[in-house]
Amino acid sequence: MAKLNNTQVFCRIVELGTFAAVAREMNLSAMMISKYMAQLEESLGVALLNRTTRQLSMTEAGRIYYHRSKQLLDDFSELEEYTSQLGLQVKGTLKISAPIDFGGLYMVPAIDAYQRGYPDVKILMTLHNSQVNLSEGSFDLSILVTDTLDLGVVARKIAQTRLCTYASPGYIAEYGEPQTIEELSSHRCLHYMDTPHRDYWVFNVGGEEIKIKANWHFASNNGRALCQAAALGMGITQAPELSVINYLEQGKLVEILPNFRIPSLKIYATYLQRRFLPAKLATFVDFLIKYFAENNRLMKIT
């Protein structure tokens, strides 16, 4: 057990960067953390860390030992959690990352419904539009609205939405309605930042996906801000239908260029492949799939 404890200390030193940070986290002295590291290196007969007055770095042996130990520690932790939940209530804290618009509009009601059935699961949801690296361990689950997926994660589809192009009736009355994507170059565009397509908008032309660089006059990483700008007549925007449904129902926005719409974007619940999937994660993902299947028509994200 001593070696397991020392290995855990070593992994946290690598992840936090300093002995002092690990000491604070574990409520121990830096001297004790140093003692654990010395015991581990002595038992292995090799140095795992290069120590200077300015920084710590792993030796080649340290890098190999860290990556293998991290996997074993994660497996052990998952096995412990999985076993402890057998025959017991599902409980724990589930850390979720979700896009701002989808998370704000649709995830809160889903979480409320889930916690009615699993009241002992606490959920910490962070909303942002940057794709997270699940292997860093900050999140258990990441919700993605995308047409591309990274390798190395489990991705389960929970819903889908159309990516369309919109303008307000007022904008169309003043500037006219483009009939082809080439005409967009002479229009004022409102661009959504931080997408996989970066500065480009995507369209379907004869079954082929075409990207064009938007002539944008206003850009933001917040879909709600862009929808509001489009409703005010500031320009044309391209957005998932789930983000603009209220504006469409109120007549503040209308879809343009419908014949160039690309296939629907999928909405995925993604998580790392694990040998033992924690019950809180398994039940939540299964619940999301069922919840959105039952509520897609009401929520108009099919």
TrEMBL record:
The keyword Acetylation does not apply. GO terms for biological process: DNA-templated transcription. Keywords: DNA-binding, Transcription, Transcription regulation. Transmembrane segments: none annotated. Residues 8-59 form the HTH lysR-type domain. GO terms for molecular function: DNA-binding transcription factor activity; sequence-specific DNA binding. PROSITE patterns: HTH_LYSR (PS50931). It holds the Pfam family LysR_substrate. It comes from the Bacteria. Belongs to the LysR transcriptional regulatory family. This is LysR family transcriptional regulator.
